[in-house]
């Protein structure tokens, strides 16, 4: 990926007559920020000017040239050769997706599948890249590289692989779904939203495309757009528990307790006996918003039983316990006051 940013102090900026300007911006607390801006004017260097004695004054007519020394230039003097500084582009090397090797025996696609089944993502990633070295690229392999690379944090290679896949199959919505996920990981939400819209344009019946569009909108705090996208995803695939979880999380974030409970209870039911801890945590938050504190406490406790190190559920459980204790204390005080009468 090439950087489009310009260095204001670069050789190119100076050669174009652009000079940095520094100014101070005073903030509260005595903090001063130094700002740099470009002035569209020639740069003037301060130099010591020494007159050169002329043995035969007066000097012939001509133009006066200012430099480290002052001298008169007449028409007889040859014109100085202009110095032209050409701007140069520094090429950012393209990441090498394929890995070179001399192994003609191994079936690297099969090796990648085996590694994936064993949970060895790094080995699968390397095997797929080795496969590309001696085989023509396909969008399927490139998308797999992009997906695994994103999970491994190899974001530059992942992006290049997905872009190459998009060039091979421009109408493949899956490519844009993976790009949207990648850009959400890199916090480039504008690109994520654009990629998600492209995925929907290419396959408007894809629940996955609508779901990733909802996630991109949610991360951008565009809650109405997120709700539209998540609800559409649920309509297209009502049996997917993750879609109900995402819609429920949106309602938790927008403090719509009843809707959050409905969506997250559905998600938990669809997961069956293997409800993820984050769904239980989200469900606990939904119950809390709906003032169903006993059920909230139970949901957080279930999450901690599954994962004793799940800190979010621990924090939420402590808060609920304090709220429940305070409510019980308030009730006991109220009863005491009634008995006093």
Describe this structure in words.
The protein is mainly α and 341 residues long. It is built from 14 helices and five strands. Strand 4 and strand 5 form a beta hairpin.
Number of helices: 14
For the largest sheet, list the strands in their spatial order. Answer: 3-5-4
Gyration radius, to the nearest Å?
A: 33 Å
Q: Would you count the extended β strands for me?
A: 5
Helix-strand blueprint:
Blueprint lengths: L10 H5 L2 E9 L5 E9 L9 E2 L11 E4 L2 E5 L34 H10 L3 H13 L5 H14 L2 H14 L4 H13 L3 H14 L4 H13 L3 H14 L4 H13 L3 H15 L5 H13 L3 H14 L4 H30 L1
Parallel strand pairs: 3-5
Antiparallel strand pairs: 1-2, 4-5
Helix pairs in contact: 2-3, 3-4, 4-5, 4-6, 5-6, 6-7, 6-8, 7-8, 8-9, 9-10, 10-11, 10-12, 11-12, 12-13, 12-14, 13-14
Structure characteristics:
3-stranded mixed beta sheet, single chain, 5 strands, disordered N terminus, 341 residues, elongated, mainly alpha
Please give a quick description of this structure:
This protein is mainly alpha-helical and 341 residues long. Helices cover 57% and strands 9% of the residues.
